[in-house]
Write a structure and sequence with these properties.
It is a single chain. The protein is mainly alpha-helical. The protein is built from four helices and three strands, in the order βααββαα. It has a three-stranded antiparallel β-sheet. The longest helix has 17 residues. The chain is elongated.
Length: 91
C-alpha cells in the first residue's frame, strides 16, 4: 500500500506560483492583494504566504456559493431573453 502526499510551498513566488497553483505570479499577486493576503518581502524578493492565500480563496469561494441569485420580475426576465435573442418588444 503506497500513500500519496502533496507538497505545498510555504511561500508562493515568481518561481513556483504557476507550478503550485496553475496561475502566473502576476495573477497570484493581484488576487492576494484583492483578498487581503499580505505580499511579503522587499524589492524583487516578493512572495505570498501559501496557507493564507488558500484560506482566502476558500473563504471567497464559499461567499460566492452562499449568495442567492437576485429575484427577477417577469418583465426583467423577458427583457433579458429579448436582449439575448436580439428582438425588441412590439408595441
Amino acid at each position: 500500500m503506497s500513500a500519496r502526499s502533496t507538497v505545498t510551498p510555504v511561500i508562493l513566488g515568481p518561481a513556483n506560483s504557476e507550478a503550485a497553483t496553475g496561475w502566473s505570479w502576476p495573477f497570484v499577486k493581484a488576487r492576494a492583494r484583492e483578498l487581503g493576503v499580505p505580499v511579503v518581502g522587499t524589492g524583487k524578493k516578493l512572495g505570498v504566504p501559501a496557507a493564507a492565500f488558500l484560506t482566502a480563496l476558500e473563504r471567497a469561494a464559499q461567499a460566492i456559493t452562499l449568495q442567492e441569485p437576485p429575484a427577477l420580475s417577469t418583465e426583467e426576465i423577458a427583457a433579458q431573453v429579448r436582449s439575448v435573442l436580439g428582438r425588441r418588444r412590439a408595441g
